[in-house]
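Whether sequence alone determines local backbone shape is best considered at the level of individual chains. In the encoding step, the backbone of a single protein was reduced to a row of integers, each denoting a local shape. For completeness, the protein is quoted in full, as a sequence line and a line of structure tokens.
***
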Amino acid sequence: MDLSPYASAAEVHSVEGRVGCGKTQRLVEAVLDLLAQGVPPREIILFAATPAAACALERRLKAVVPLEDLPLVTTLPLYALDVLSSPQAEARTGRRGRILMGFEERLLLEDVKTSGVAPRRLSEMLKFFYRSWADLEPMSGDWFYDEQEERVFRLLVGSLRHRESYLACELPRAAFDYGQRFAHDLEAFRRDYVLVDDYQMASRASQCLAGLLARTALLVASEPCARTHGSEDYPHFSGIEELVAANPNAVRETLAYSHLSRVVTDAVNLLAADETLDARPVPCACTDQGSCEAVAFERPKSELTGVVSLVSHHLSYGARPQDIAVAAATRQWAARIAQALQAEGIAASPLSRPSLGGDMRHADTCRAARAFTLLRLAADPEDPLALRSWCGFGDYLAQSALANAVASGDAALSLRAGVAFADAPESALLRQQAASATTALAEAAEIVDCLSGLRGSALIDAAIVAVGADDDQGAALLRAAAKDAGEQATAPALCDAVQDRVLSPGFVGDGVRVGLPEDFAGQTACVVIMAGLVNGLVLPRRYFDPAQMERDKRPAMLAAEMAKTYACAGKAASTLLFTYFTEAPLAEAESLQLKIHRVRLREGERVCEVHPSETIRAITGVSYHD
């Protein structure tokens, strides 16, 4: 019988409980106990669910731990990247410790499309591959459903290995596989004490990696009811049961009392007890009465104004901006709320998700991505990832035929020599793409020569000017990364700084935090306002249309959305507010893709009736029925 990947050489301790019961505080207390016992800070590591949650946990520790005694706080995917970035790992795997940026991943998918598989089928296959990576599936042999799946998977993996890079979703799996094969190399990254918050939000590969990293003790905190995730890491909700089953001596500790205010605890209990989650209520251990209210506004615009008024009201009563969190139904709604707050002079801290985007087929729309690719070439003129990216810019087919020839060894790219074929290409398309790529590489070689000798912001600015990216939104990301790295930073250091920024989205500043419900994993706030909770924004319109979604698929979608609402509501220590609107002009309702319950003509205007979201039916008593 094969040993479970959850089997750990360390002692396993599981802390379980509902949201608001103090699981994160239990981890903080465990750190304090370990430090008091003389455990070196370097031998303690804490993993949070998301980079934003890691920042929040680190701030919590800084309040009680001297800076010199502060242990490392990070996420499992980021730590996996550190493992794979070591010289030993790069030498053994043949891949560099880096992930594909958004535009580089889109170019990878263009190469995979050359398999000839129908786009919809290909999309489903890729989702299956990514989830299987995260779930530690074997990924070989008879595991594939048919030859088509195996062919696409080989093409995907071959393209990644040629690029010497990783997809973000495969990092924990790759680090776990590497650690099992080369245990001696992993020893430098193992720690005596490994603590994991929101264990249920990590992928199976991440959960098993945490057990592999622990020498003496593994302490995990989990919330069985919060079946939702706030990161690109795929959640594995049953991981805690697998962990306990694989480690018979594991200790399970249950936190049975809520530390939220009494009224908020009652509201969270109502949400948890809904038939979709069916969790048992917990008693309250807090003396603060608190408040909870569902506030209805007439129209979308009035709700935005109302949210600003609610925030202003709490600020006027002494709350600090950073004590208030606004969880919006969608990114679009969050952006509108942040703009409305800033228009009233209220500091807002929306979740920052830096990225390098644009349409690779049109060079003018992805100038910042081109500038970053120049940085990669300045760091290594023969970098296969950068060479492939540079050749793909501005070409409708993204030079995919040539890229596949290069990945298979039938052709080679060089910054100085252009394109070289092992044999004369028979394809007219290949000859055409080779000529175009040679011209593009010659242009890049000239620019890289001009960048030689430059460092820090001077290097970034020169790359931006070379491709005319001053007005590109991504230029700010590149300049911010240069500031992080310092004026003497070399091209490789600047590339790493950009990657660090992209991999660490978070709430910037001390304003009112604004994001999606799942963005508040690991966060706490005195006041939580959940806004835009109407059918169509929270549950998509297709959920209510039997022609677009089968009835048997609805419960899973509703449960996921309910879990998000429940988990976010549990971040409110004292005050919890749900806001929604009851009608909207027909044109605006269509643009927002709302679930329209009835349309009336009022004073020459078509107005739609809108219901509060199904996810707060336990609070409002309003429910949608076919």
Observations:
- The chain has a mean pLDDT of 92.
- Residues 6 and 242 are 7 Å apart (CA to CA).
- The chain has four domains: 11-84+171-255, 99-167, 262-353+509-620, 363-503.
